[in-house]
């Protein structure tokens, strides 16, 4: 069954500049305003070396890390990861009214800081790694693809004014606002983001007021403008983002807008971006976030780059998303250590839809290598190894052998090692090394590393569950079930208390992993009951319900309950699921329609999957096998073997794992069809040109 990641929340940043905007316009300060965070599904196609229909990266399916407190962003000089995309172009502002001073009018500063809402409660965090020394910024790509222009704002200043801007104070948690925290976990599972959730966000505190210069005076028009700004801020705080958006657009069209400081103009742009995102206007939000950074480069903090990256991803500007994420990492390496691994994975996966020679993906991966990004929970381990495997491929392609060999030391997942061994380009890196050539040694190292991590993090149920998955995959089903039942027993015995620090985020994944063990033991109906509990736990805790619904639907059709599977997919839509999540759902539909004999609907769903062949190859492989389209499956495999960028993924999918011990009738039928395609002469000939097919003493990481 597939596992899907929770959707990344789209977080906005309010830059310094709205300082005490409700006060006297005769003095200056920078202060943020807050708006409720808006949410949108992230887009995360998968591309991993696994058996058809299985999650990427191999090993234990890896939900995002447990919730951690929002880190403090330390102001620092902001290096751009690459030339900032030039859109939308600034438009001349209307003529400004005369003022007594030639200096730009500063922000008002009489009233106190707008109160931030109380932070939402969060589970106790796992210990964060010690801050790493700041590395050099990630290398910028040779060029940046200019994204499609978003709608330009109605009016922007004719020139960028660059007054001295105070650095923002340390961020404080807030249950609402448009400033992004380093995203907290929403317990995704590793294939893709599927559901919108809302972690905490932070709003920078106001800086101390600065007195106005004696020459400044304020006209009645300017004073009225500040009154309207105060009203817009108040509407935002009340959650009236539509009303606030209308007010802010009108304020930006006013001649007064061109007379205020660049910091205030940029802050209004960012506040407007937050309202637009809350109102479902992602394109406009992206344009205004980009404009804010052009208006006042001083606001390009790590959190600014993070916000721009997420908006770029939502609007499918995957090149900008990767470059901006690299900029966030390079700007604040210590805080980047706490970035959600699922968000990083989605951003990296999205770049696979770009035909740019991996340049933008490399920028982001190099930034992660420079900070030696590491897992903080066992559920992160497979995702982080996926990063290093991607970078390993790039190092080999660019003849950086020593770097490639260093990365290889970080990999221990059997299916990932199998895909490396399968590829003729990589074979020389593993030959002669027992930890990459001896099946028993591979399995022992894999299980041992998961146990060591779980022992070092006894308060993480996610780490215990990941250890259990490693036991399951090497065939120790009884031991895996005992380990999971012991952990779940502690949760039940806690009687309303928290038995594990990451329980809110990862309890559902412990239940999900338990269903996988039960399924392999032939206890199918018990597995379905357990997965139903995982879905219900996700709903009760505000977690990733979409992933759990798709996983449950997967079990239902495999058990022959195709109609129930289709019903379970109700609610999996463009509004709740990522592109990859939608493809996983389409695969379940194809397999269900095949059982029901509904050829018309099967064809429609299969056509949708075919249009995403390289974005979602695993769902397409499984769907083609369900549809008994041998020719289509063989053609897909051969075409992807011929493409150097997709070759390793396909070779990994063709490796031979232990047979499923207790397959259902439909599961056995689908496996038989795939085996027939793997043994076709044309497929075997294509494999022989590029690599190998070998057998491994480990179960495929699908169930």
Biggest β-sheet: count, sense, barrel? Answer: 2 strands, antiparallel
| Quaternary class | single chain
Task: State the low-pLDDT regions, or none.
Answer: 1-17, 19-214
- The number of strands is 4
Name of the CATH homologous superfamily of the domain at 413-699: Tetratricopeptide repeat domain
Which value, in Å, is the CA radius of gyration?
26 Å
If classified by CATH, what would the architecture of the domain at 413-699 be?
Alpha Horseshoe
Count of helices? 27
Strand order of the largest sheet: 1-2
Q: Structural class of the helices, strands and pairings?
A: mainly alpha
Question: How much helical structure, as a percent, in the residues?
Answer: 40-55%
Mean pLDDT: 76
End-to-end separation in angstroms reads 6 Å
What is the CATH third-level topology name of the domain at 413-699? Serine Threonine Protein Phosphatase 5, Tetratricopeptide repeat
Which shape, going by the Cα principal axes? globular
Beta fraction: under 5%
CATH first level of the domain at 413-699: Mainly Alpha
Task: Tell me about this structure.
This protein is mostly helical and 703 residues long. Among the domains are: 88-114 and 153-170 and 218-299, no CATH class; 413-699, Alpha Horseshoe (Serine Threonine Protein Phosphatase 5, Tetratricopeptide repeat), CATH 1.25.40.10. The protein has 27 helices and 4 strands. The chain has helices spanning 220-238, 241-253, 262-278, 282-295, 302-314, 318-331, 333-336, 341-350, 359-370, 381-397, 401-408, 414-422, 434-437, 439-456, 461-473, 477-493, 503-520, 524-540, 545-558, 562-568, 579-596, 599-610, 617-626, 630-642, 647-653, 665-678, 681-690; strands spanning 171-174, 201-204, 656-658, 695-699. The strands form 2 sheets. A two-stranded antiparallel ribbon has the order 1-2. It has a two-stranded parallel sheet with strand order 3-4. Helix 15 runs parallel beside helix 17 (503-520). The termini are close together. Residues 1-17 and 19-214 have low confidence and may be disordered.
């Amino acid at each position: 069954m597939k596992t899907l990641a929770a959707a990344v929340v789209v977080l906005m940043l309010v830059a310094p500049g709205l300082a005490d905007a409700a006060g006297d316009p005769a003095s200056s300060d920078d202060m943020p305003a807050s708006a409720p965070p808006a949410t949108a599904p992230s887009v995360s196609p998968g591309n991993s070396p696994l058996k058809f229909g299985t999650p990427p990266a191999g090993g234990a399916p890896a939900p995002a890390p447990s919730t951690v407190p929002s880190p403090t962003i330390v102001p620092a000089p902001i290096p751009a990861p690459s030339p900032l995309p030039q859109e939308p172009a600034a438009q001349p502002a209307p003529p400004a009214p005369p003022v007594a001073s030639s200096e730009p009018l500063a922000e008002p500063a009489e009233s106190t800081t707008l109160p931030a809402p109380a932070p939402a409660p969060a589970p106790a965090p796992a210990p964060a790694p010690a801050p790493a020394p700041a590395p050099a910024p990630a290398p910028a790509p040779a060029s940046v693809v200019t994204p499609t222009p978003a709608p330009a704002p109605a009016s922007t200043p004719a020139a960028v004014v660059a007054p001295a801007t105070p650095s923002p104070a340390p961020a404080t948690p807030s249950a609402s606002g448009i400033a992004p925290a380093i995203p907290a976990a929403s317990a995704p599972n590793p294939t893709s983001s599927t559901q919108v959730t809302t972690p905490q966000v932070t709003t920078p505190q106001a800086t101390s007021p600065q007195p106005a210069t004696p020459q400044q005076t304020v006209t009645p028009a300017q004073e009225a403008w500040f009154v309207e700004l105060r009203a817009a801020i108040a509407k935002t705080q009340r959650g009236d983002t539509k009303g606030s958006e209308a007010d802010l657009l009108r304020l930006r069209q006013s001649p007064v807008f061109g007379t205020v400081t660049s910091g205030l103009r940029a802050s209004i742009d960012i506040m407007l971006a937050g309202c637009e995102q809350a109102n479902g206007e992602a394109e406009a939000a992206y344009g205004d976030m980009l404009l804010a950074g052009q208006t006042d480069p001083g606001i390009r903090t790590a959190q600014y780059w993070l916000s721009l990256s997420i908006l770029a991803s939502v609007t499918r500007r995957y090149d900008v998303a990767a470059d901006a994420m690299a900029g966030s990492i390079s700007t604040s390496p210590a805080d980047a250590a706490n970035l959600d691994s699922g968000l990083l994975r989605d951003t990296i996966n999205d770049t696979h839809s770009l035909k740019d020679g991996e340049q933008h993906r490399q920028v982001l991966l190099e930034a992660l290598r420079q900070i030696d990004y590491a897992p903080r929970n066992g559920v992160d381990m497979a995702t982080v190894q996926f990063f290093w495997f991607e970078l390993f491929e790039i190092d080999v392609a660019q003849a950086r052998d020593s770097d490639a060999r260093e990365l290889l030391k970080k990999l221990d997942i059997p299916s990932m090692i199998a895909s490396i061994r399968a590829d003729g380009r990589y074979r020389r890196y593993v030959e002669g090394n027992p930890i990459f050539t001896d099946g028993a040694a591979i399995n022992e190292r894999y299980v041992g590393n998961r146990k060591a991590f779980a022992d070092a993090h006894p308060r993480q149920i996610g780490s215990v569950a990941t250890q259990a998955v490693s036991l399951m995959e090497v065939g120790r089903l009884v031991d895996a079930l005992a380990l999971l039942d012991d952990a779940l027993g502690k949760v039940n015995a806690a009687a309303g208390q928290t038995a594990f620090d990451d329980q809110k985020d990862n309890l559902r994944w412990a239940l999900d992993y338990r269903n996988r063990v039960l399924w392999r033991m032939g206890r199918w109906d018990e597995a379905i009951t357990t997965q139903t509990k995982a879905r219900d736990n996700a709903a009760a805790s505000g977690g990733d319900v979409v992933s759990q619904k798709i996983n449950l639907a997967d079990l239902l059709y495999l058990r022959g309950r195709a109609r129930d599977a289709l019903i379970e997919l109700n609610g999996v839509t463009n509004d709740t699921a990522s592109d990859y999540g939608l493809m996983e759902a389409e695969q379940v539909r194809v397999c269900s329609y095949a059982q029901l004999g509904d050829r018309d609907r099967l064809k429609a769903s299969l056509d949708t999957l075919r249009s995403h062949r390289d974005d979602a190859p695993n769902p397409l492989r499984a769907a083609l096998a369900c549809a008994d389209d041998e020719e289509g499956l063989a053609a897909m495999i051969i075409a992807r073997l011929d493409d150097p960028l997709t070759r390793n993924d396909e070779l990994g999918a063709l490796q031979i794992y232990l047979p499923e011990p207790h397959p259902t009738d439909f599961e056995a039928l689908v496996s038989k069809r795939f085996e027939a395609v793997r043994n076709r002469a044309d497929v075997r000939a294509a494999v022989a040109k590029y690599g190998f097919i070998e057998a491994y003493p480990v179960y495929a990481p699908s169930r």
